[in-house]
Amino acid sequence: MIKVDFKNVTKTFEGRIEVLKGICLQLHNGESHIILGQSGCGKSVLMKCLLGIIPITSGDIVVDGISVLDKKQRRQYMRKFSVLFQGGALFDSMTVLENVEFALNQINHDAKTCRSIAEEKLIAVGLDQNIFTRYPAEISGGMQKRAALARALAMAPEVIIFDEPTSGLDPITGGVVCNLLKDTIAGTGITAITITHDLKVAEFLADRVSVLNKGHIEWTGKESEMSRCGNEFVERFFRASKGIINHRK
Ligand SMILES: Nc1ncnc2c1ncn2[C@@H]1O[C@H](COP(=O)(O)OP(=O)(O)OP(=O)(O)O)[C@@H](O)[C@H]1O
Ligand SMILES: [Mg+2]
What we know:
It contains 8 helices and 10 strands. It has 249 residues and is an alpha/beta fold. The chain folds into 2 domains: 164 residues, Rossmann fold, CATH 3.40.50.300; 67 residues, no CATH class. The protein has a 6-stranded mixed β-sheet, sandwiched between helices.
């Protein structure tokens, strides 16, 4: 079943070149899909369009039959998503527990239910009780990511977006976070979209990968097929990511 359908989506910012030039992409229900691409190629813009944060210029994005353009069903549309933002984006002035409770409050749970869901999700991402009352500045980057993940999961999303989940983390913590993401989405039926320029993340998390370049999807397929997919840009991206530099090209 198709969960998310990008139908010839374009995005042009005023007075600028087209950032998205006709994106056609279908994401399957429950899959873990990675959007790979170089810096500045439009990954974040594509996700903001999906979330309805910025308007598309033409085309359509349909999630479970609801269009991003349908103003009447905007609330139902937005409720389907949760985002794990790049920097974690926790509120500094709230404790870890309050951060998750605050998000839950937005979806009309009573205080007691908020507390128990928040605690359950924080424990599920491997945070210890003694972290719950700390402020974001008092915990490590890896712990902040876990707390942000707990907050995203608490919203019971159908589609979860991981925005550069390993950036800013050392390789070991990045690996731990990747494992955690994989474990948390496995078997849940959640459709996960990860945007990254890190091939290792794709290797680890992807059911399928799409490579974005200059506003187009160059290729979609399994990560294991990337190195010999026949698309010159994709193969070059793969080799460069593996540290194989061809000086003649
Ligand atoms: N609000 C905006 N107004 C004008 N141009 C924008 C706006 N947001 C993004 N852009 C432009 O769109 C292009 C794509 O940006 P985007 O942030 O999607 O890149 P990205 O692929 O996410 O890069 P990175 O990997 O560095 O995060 C860039 O050239 C950027 O300058
Ligand atoms: Mg970006």
